[in-house]
Model the fold of this input.
Amino acid sequence: MKTKNKLISILSNIDIIVAGVMLVILIVLTFAGVIWRRFFNAPFTWMEEVQLACLVWIVFGAGGAAFRTGNHVAIEMVVDLMPKKLQKFMTIFISIIVVAVIGYLFKQSLGFVELFIKSLRATSILNIPFWLIYGIAPISYILMIISYFYALVYNVESEVKEAINE
Done:
């Protein structure tokens, strides 16, 4: 039972794990690149390509987690000033808009990834296929929608809003 719970915990936080690992890789490689360039006068020519890939995976990897924990960018002040019934309507209206926008971005990202696969484009130095770098985008958009509804169902509030309500 404990193993099953641990597996579920890992799977439900895989986006945070991926973003965290990529952040560590980005920091370590950037630090090593500065040291090599400054002290050994031998810069890593491939560093920018890896940094770009890490940054893309950090942003898209953490996107779903931001929705799931309620820490995404949101302007709630206007909605909070409305009567309760209107707040519920606005929540539904905003949810429809959010899902529509993320759905649109998902569709567009599929097109980009498909284009990268067909064109066989890759980075110039390491030859990393662009579909591998940007392939996280459609996956992330699906996780964002799932996480958004998770936050709605379980009434997850941002840490800032929780602190204000205390």
